[in-house]
Amino acid sequence: MPIKSLEKPDQKLLGKRGEGTRYALLMAGLELFGEYGVKATSTRMLAESSGTNVAAIPYYFGSKEGLYKAVVGYIVERMRAHIGEPGREAQQMMEAGKISKKQARGALQQLLAAFAGVFVESDEPKAWVRIVMREQSQPTEAFDILYYGQMQRVQKILARLVAVVVDLDPEGDEAKLRAHALFSQILGFLVAREGLLRQLGSKTLQEKHVGMIYRVLSMHIDACLKAPALSEEEP
Amino acid sequence: MPIKSLEKPDQKLLGKRGEGTRYALLMAGLELFGEYGVKATSTRMLAESSGTNVAAIPYYFGSKEGLYKAVVGYIVERMRAHIGEPGREAQQMMEAGKISKKQARGALQQLLAAFAGVFVESDEPKAWVRIVMREQSQPTEAFDILYYGQMQRVQKILARLVAVVVDLDPEGDEAKLRAHALFSQILGFLVAREGLLRQLGSKTLQEKHVGMIYRVLSMHIDACLKAPALSEEEP
DNA sequence: GTCTATAGTCGGATAGAC
DNA sequence: GTCTATCCGACTATAGAC
């Protein structure tokens, strides 16, 4: 039984008969779509991996693509649970009124560390992260589900926190771009991992590597936030 | 003007009869494998796009996978031509003897700007970049061709330059990880572009965005390089 | 070297038994 | 709700004409 973490078997969903099959397909889709992509994952693979049969896919989800979209919706749901909390904290702080630079800096470190946890943490990138990345570089219809479901909120929070620290317009391009660059530093340890591992001469990320990655990222983030505002354009 | 189309039709390759067909397939593969991935690209698509026929693929390359490997080999060849130059300069400087921190800092900025040119520049990420990224996150047999063909060298140069600037062991993990983090900041504008574009409220990257991205990246790189060495482990 | 025709396989979706 | 059997289209690779 492979699936872990994101895939907490939600017992509430298993009440009705048939929900077990539905859920099993969802989990198999999460794993296989992440590993091989939608096109390369056959309904037969899904049926075997889930312990069901090919006919169950059109029955529950209309089609293979329907299953894929349901998987993406499930990812959004679970993302909320995982990185939602530090995000909510930061959001509440900002909405509650003024937030100091120091607080914003701390919130950024915390939020980005949460992402680093997801991206760096595990030996093998989690299947759902791969799905998200694939949608980023080659968006399908399902990208909207991801973006409006969760990503947009995270982007906004990051940009606003950066804006507070560096004294920028939170709606301006510089805040957005700088937030994106910060986030990218973390992302790189996920998407360009294979090359990194070869350079480190290791098959997987060792604990010593992970520890140093966290420290390097924290230091770099801090350094970047010390850089002053770039654009002083008059309106 | 940084990097231009990887796809320069090399006339020298078109001498013999049949080389035109071979080359046409190579170009079609570059485009279609980048756009859809290997599995999702059919031999029919390749034949139509190249103006040839399906039988030409096994004839020249043995199989569709053979064509893919040939495409990856071609990418390495062209990468050498493009980002090779600033890399060679930096390498020669280092091999020639001592290199000052200021020189190393300049070389890093130059080298990373060359990558930014490739990654940020065009509206649509070039097809070959997508192939490289796909191999990073889900390496196939072809990854070796990429890694030992070009990437390894770039990694080494970046790590050594970082080591000079920050006073680190060029073979140590910190230099490698910090170089990787710097590179990632640039990479993020390629792999997470869709989300960024939505945040910017734009269908494509505008010129004003590109300009600001360059400035932000340059500033961030400089800021990160000012951060002191982290590890002071005794041997 | 090029291309058409075709073999042989595997894909997704469906029908209908249980 | 579940599952087997099956349809039919799309796929890769090959055979063989030109």
Topology, element by element:
Two copies of one chain form a homodimer.
Chain A: H1 19-36, H2 43-50, H3 56-61, H4 64-95, H5 101-120, H6 127-137, H7 143-166, H8 173-191, H9 193-200, H10 207-226
Helix pairs in contact in A: 1-2, 1-4, 1-6, 4-5, 4-7, 5-7, 5-8, 5-10, 7-8
The first copy, chain A, binds a DNA duplex (18 and 18 nucleotides) through residues 17-18, 21, 42-44, 52-59, 63-64.
Structure, explained:
Two copies of one chain form a homodimer. By secondary structure, chain A is mainly α. Chain A folds into two domains: 11-61, Arc Repressor Mutant, subunit A (Orthogonal Bundle); 69-226, Tetracycline Repressor, domain 2 (Orthogonal Bundle). Chain A has helices spanning 19-36, 43-50, 56-61, 64-95, 101-120, 127-137, 143-166, 173-191, 193-200, 207-226. Chains A and B meet through α6, α7, α8, α9 and α10 of A and α6, α7, α8, α9 and α10 of B. The structure holds a DNA duplex (18 and 18 nucleotides).
In short:
The structure is a homodimer of 235-residue chains. With 235 residues, the first copy, chain A, is mainly α.
**Proportion of strand residues of chain A:** under 5%
Total individual domains of chain A: 2
Quaternary structure annotation:
homodimer
CATH architecture of the largest domain in chain A: Orthogonal Bundle
Helix content of chain A: over 70%
**What's the CATH first level of the largest domain in chain A?**
Mainly Alpha
Order of helices and strands of chain A: HHHHHHHHHH
Biggest interface pair, counts? A-B, 61 and 61 residues
Mean model confidence by pLDDT of chain A:
89
Tell me the Rg of chain A in angstroms: 20 Å
Give the biggest beta sheet of chain A: none
